[in-house]
Amino acid sequence: MARNAALPILTAEPGLTHYLEEIRRFPMLERQEEYMLGKRWREHGDRDAAHKLVTSHLRLVTKIARDYRGYYRATIWMRTARQTRRRAEG
Q1: pLDDT band for position 4 (cuts 50, 70, 90)
Q2: Contacts with 48 (C-beta within 8 Å, 6 or more apart), sequence order
Q3: Number of folded domains in the chain?
Q4: What is the pLDDT of residues 37-80, one digit of tens each?
Q5: Residue 13 pLDDT greater than 60, yes or no
Q6: Of 8, 44, 82, 83, whose CB count within 10 A is highest?
């Protein structure tokens, strides 16, 4: 994994803001580069290629997680409201 030395490493400092700043340091990949890295991982088990693929998508993962941020609370609220309504009707 000598090639990973040039890539930024996530630190253990707390805070979402810091994490978002850290993941911006990982470069986004061009389509062809992503394809070639995937091919290297699949055909040769190249861990450096896998690392680069994963770290290049951290921003996407964070965006998806942010979109679901209130989902759990809304689900609990809806379930509680239904249970309350059933008790009132029953």
Answers
A1: low
A2: 1, 3, 4
A3: 1
A4: 999 999 999 999 999 999 999 999 888 888 777 776 777 777 78
A5: no
A6: 8
Residue matched to tokens 């998508």: 57
User: And the tokens for 31?
Assistant: 């389509």
* 19 in Cβ contact with 8 (< 8 Å): no
Q: How far is CA 9 from CA 19, 84, 90, in A?
A: 11, 49, 57
Amino acid (1-letter code) at residue 74: A
Q: Is residue 64 part of a domain?
A: yes
Answer yes or no: are the C-beta atoms of 5 and 53 closer than 8 Å: no
Rounded to the nearest 5 degrees, what angle is found at the Cα of 5, between the Cα atoms of 25 and 65? 35
- Is 44 inside a domain boundary? yes
pTM to 2 decimal places: 0.58
Domain assignment of residue 5, yes or no? no
Helical H segments across the chain, by residue range: 16-23, 31-44, 47-56, 58-67, 71-89
